[in-house]
């Protein structure tokens, strides 16, 4: 009953009371008590309606606190998608101070299979004082135990310091600047042939261009913009117990890509080979020892957008300025000790090395660069860590703040 109707009823009862007393000698006390009860009920309803707005606000606040404190619980069996979000300050050598935001979601396509890992999706965005900004969406989608899809779509605008596009040039050239923009789509579909062994197909689409460049000679005659479309196949052996935060298992992947001449602006066919080898072993209580080997071979005279960079991706050679060293090919290795401290908090320490080089025949031991650092982990979602690392490199260091483990 609405407030308007309550008022009307009270009024009618009062009128009826007066009329009844005058005309029929009805018990006035009984009528007065009845009208008083209705009036009291109307007042209570008004009070309840007035208190409903702060009550709703209290519920929203309680839900936010619960999500903050209990966001690491696996709720994918209860909800269609379990979503959490965060905003945070950031600092890197390339971007200086900035602000980042991320939304993370976990979900299950098949809720009947409790042993299947939950799928995940992450939306990340950021802006910095130097004018860098980016937005990306990435995830791992498990259709069932045999079919899975990994994907990443990203746009970025990055004003950067620039030393050249080869290791030799980066060693001798004075620092210049450029601003690079890029749009990238990567997708990997895999099918499990036998337990833990997968075969897959890959797609890689890129469009990169330079909006500004301080010294065009640093490009060594290459274009200031390129686009590529590549396709490939992969073989994977994977026994990890989690994709985003593994604590045990082995992950070995070999991928071969081809970027055909008609589907790009390189003017030739480009072949690329990538190798990843990871191993995870529990040590004492709450600890994990993790190893990572990485190799990327693209041949010689590859266009600059396809050349690997030390510090790229915030996963390997953390703390190096992105693009401080660039070349056709790359190799790196790292070992990391991860230790759980209390509830959702953990710490890590790592040591590693890596280099970029023009070709295997020109690979030199003197060009290998050391890398080490420390980090803090906060379990943001179930098996999804907020990662804060500070890495040291050759005469430099820097922070990395992002989601999920480095490898």
Structure description:
By secondary structure, this protein is of the alpha+beta class. 17% of the residues lie in helices and 50% in strands. The protein is built from 3 helices and 16 strands. The protein has helices at residues 3-23, 28-70, 167-172, and strands at residues 82-92, 96-107, 119-128, 133-142, 147-162, 176-194, 197-213, 225-238, 249-259, 270-282, 287-297, 329-342, 345-357, 369-381, 384-393, 396-403. Helix 1 runs antiparallel to helix 2 (28-70). Residues 1-53 have low confidence and may be disordered.
Summary?
The chain has 407 residues and is α+β, with helices and mostly antiparallel strands.
Q: Which features would summarize this protein structure in a list?
A:
single chain; about 400 residues; alpha+beta; Porin; 16-stranded antiparallel β-sheet; 3 helices; about 15% helix; about 50% strand; disordered N terminus
């Amino acid at each position: 009953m609405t407030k308007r109707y309550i008022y009307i009823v009270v009024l009618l009862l009062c009128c009826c009371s007066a009329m009844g007393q005058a005309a029929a000698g009805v018990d006035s006390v009984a009528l007065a008590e009845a009208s008083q009860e209705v009036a009291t009920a109307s007042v209570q309803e008004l009070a309840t309606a007035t208190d409903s707005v702060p009550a709703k606000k209290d519920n929203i606040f309680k839900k936010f606190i619960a999500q903050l404190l209990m966001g690491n619980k696996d709720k994918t069996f209860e909800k269609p998608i379990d979503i959490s979000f965060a905003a945070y300050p950031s600092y890197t050598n390339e971007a200086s101070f900035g602000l980042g935001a991320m939304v993370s979601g976990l979900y299950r396509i098949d809720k009947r299979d409790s042993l299947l890992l939950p799928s995940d999706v992450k939306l990340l965005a950021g802006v910095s004082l130097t004018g860098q900004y980016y937005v990306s969406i990435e995830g791992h989608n498990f259709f069932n135990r045999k079919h899975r899809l990994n994907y990443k779509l990203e746009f970025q605008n990055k004003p950067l310091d620039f030393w050249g596009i080869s290791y030799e040039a980066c060693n001798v050239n004075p620092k210049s600047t450029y601003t690079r923009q890029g749009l990238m789509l990567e997708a990997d579909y895999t099918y499990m042939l036998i337990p833990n062994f997968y075969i897959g197909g890959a797609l890689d689409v890129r469009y990169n261009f330079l909006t500004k460049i301080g010294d065009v000679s640093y490009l060594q005659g290459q274009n200031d913009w390129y686009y590529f479309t590549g396709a490939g196949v992969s073989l994977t052996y994977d026994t990890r117990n989690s994709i985003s935060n593994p604590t045990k298992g082995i992950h070995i992947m070999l991928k071969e890509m081809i970027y055909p001449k008609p589907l790009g602006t390189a003017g030739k066919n480009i072949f690329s080979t990538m190798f990843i080898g990871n191993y995870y072993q529990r040590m004492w209580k709450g600890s994990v020892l993790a190893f990572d080997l990485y190799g990327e071979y693209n041949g010689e005279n590859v266009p600059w957008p396809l050349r690997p960079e030390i510090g790229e991706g915030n996963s390997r050679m953390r703390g190096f300025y992105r693009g401080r060293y660039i070349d056709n090919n790359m190799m790196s290795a790292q070992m990391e000790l991860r230790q759980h401290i209390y509830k959702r908090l953990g710490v890590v320490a790592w040591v590693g090395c890596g280099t970029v080089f023009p070709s295997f025949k020109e690979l030199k031991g003197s060009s290998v660069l050391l890398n080490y650092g420390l980090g803090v982990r906060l379990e943001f979602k179930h098996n999804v860590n907020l990662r804060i690392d500070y890495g040291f490199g050759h005469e430099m260091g820097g922070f990395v703040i992002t989601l999920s483990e480095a490898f």
